[in-house]
Amino acid sequence: MPFNSLAFATYRRDIDPAVFGEMIQAATSLAARHGIPFHDYIPDGRFTLDDFYDNDHLNARGAEKFTRLLLDEAVSPLLGGAPSSRTTAHGAS
Fold it and tell me: Which residues contact 51 (CB under 8 A, 6 or more apart)?
């Protein structure tokens, strides 16, 4: 299951848009070719500075939060389960 992990706003600000676009296109294409969804969590607003160790890495709290989110939104639906009420939809790009 392809997904794009989280990054804090300062990291996202400095990503080369052309390189980032190529990465998203490649991941989306790969997922479509295999009939599975691609989840882009980079722009996810449910994570704050308190969830990050640095611009590109989650701390323990953020990792636990992301693990639950990934299980609820990406893994469970693929296994036939419904997402839990703990998470909500995000604005994937």
Answer: 6, 58, 59, 61, 62, 65, 66
Instruction: Please give the radius of gyration of the chain, using alpha carbons only, rounded to the nearest integer.
Output: 14
Contact 41, 62 (CB under 8 A): no
* pTM for this model (two decimals): 0.69
User: How many Å apart are CA 81 and CA 64, to the nearest integer?
Assistant: 20
* Residue 43 CB partners (closer than 8 Å, separation 6+): 12, 90, 91, 92, 93
Q: 3-state DSSP call for residue 83?
A: coil
Contact 7, 41 (CB under 8 A): no
Residue 3, classed as helix, strand or coil, is strand
Q: What is the pLDDT of residues 32-68, one digit of tens each?
A: 999 888 888 887 889 998 999 988 899 999 999 999 9
Which amino acid is residue 47, in one-letter code? F
